[in-house]
Amino acid sequence: MPDSSARLLRLLSILQVRPEWAGPELAERLDVTTRTLRRDIRRLRDLGYPVHATPGVAGGYRLGAGAAMPPLLLDEDEAVAVAVSLRTAARGSVTGIEESALRALAKLEQVLPPRLRERTTALQLATVPLTSLAPTVDPAALTAIARACRDKRRLDFGYTDHRGNRTTRQAKPHRLVHTGQRWYLVARDLDRDDWRAFRVDRIQAIRADGRRFVPRDPPDAASFVSSAITAGPYRFRARVIMHAPVRLVAERMPPTVGVLEAVDAENCLLTTGADVLDAIALHLALLDAEFTVLDPPELIKRVTELADRLRRATPAARSPAASSPIP
């Protein structure tokens, strides 16, 4: 029989795998009697872990959420993942979270064994973040929006669009989407009776009005935001067939620039947008793949003009021999 402390750790790990376990099944997994299992459950409760029991033939045990946070059980990979996540959060897009993340990281590293501390320290020393000037969001606003999404309660809030116009919105919140730099709320705008993506850093004076709702045909939040920020707000919306597999194109283009859909194994459809046609044309050229512009007509014309200009810029195009027919 394994040591009782090791068995407690294994019991706690098993309880975290799924919501509920039958007593005999747990005892069998631990290779102990049901009496020993009950004693181990009592020891976990004494340590602060809220293990709830359901009586009866079909009863069992489940690990609940406690009012006070007991010691965490992390394996090596999980501990490193938490440390990396905290370092990332310390440079993140939420106002004031940097200090909290660094405090939590310092506490974690104090209890990490030397071999794991060496791994996380190596990551810290080798990683150089790019400084972002993107606006940060209020953590209280994120929490309020997240609760409204979870509880399906309507929200009232002020919103400032990209032109600086301030409006008051009533919405049915669906999901929060994080692009890496910005946070977006996907919600159904009640005044416009349509789905919208709102930048959270432009939301003010959030108030949950208490009225609950039943979601109606919600979109895929990530795809909706990707489409909204890559093509929706711009003057020109372009559709382009990229003659390369979608996986290769995705490696060269972040999801905030355009939406990719596989056409077949060797081609994909790119939807993107910009206020200036040259911005789209030059970006397509830099993707280093053959492509065919489907629309808009203005982009097809502009790509043709740029292609002619580039051809005329080569020495061969300007030499007399190049301009005279071959005998």
Question: Could you explain the architecture of this structure?
Answer:
The protein is an alpha+beta fold. It has 4 domains: 4-63, Arc Repressor Mutant, subunit A; 76-126, no CATH class; 139-220, SH3 type barrels; 231-312, 2-Layer Sandwich (Alpha-Beta Plaits), CATH 3.30.70. The protein has helices spanning 4-15, 23-30, 34-46, 76-89, 97-111, 114-126, 139-151, 221-230, 246-252, 277-286, 297-312, 315-318, 320-323; strands at 21-22, 51-54, 60-63, 153-160, 166-178, 183-189, 194-199, 203-212, 236-242, 258-264, 267-274, 291-295. The protein has a 5-stranded antiparallel β-sheet with strand order 7-6-5-4-8. A 4-stranded antiparallel β-sheet has the order 10-11-9-12. It has a 3-stranded antiparallel β-sheet with strand order 1-3-2. Strand 10 (258-264) and strand 11 (267-274) form a beta hairpin. The protein starts with a helix and ends with a helix. The model is unreliable at 322-327 (pLDDT under 50).
Summarize the structure.
The protein has 327 residues and is of the alpha+beta class. It has helices at 4-15, 23-30, 34-46, 76-89, 97-111, 114-126, 139-151, 221-230, 246-252, 277-286, 297-312, 315-318, 320-323, and strands spanning 21-22, 51-54, 60-63, 153-160, 166-178, 183-189, 194-199, 203-212, 236-242, 258-264, 267-274, 291-295. The protein has 4 domains: 4-63, Winged helix-like DNA-binding domain superfamily/Winged helix DNA-binding domain (Arc Repressor Mutant, subunit A, Orthogonal Bundle); 76-126, no CATH class; 139-220, SH3 type barrels (Roll); 231-312, Alpha-Beta Plaits, CATH 3.30.70.
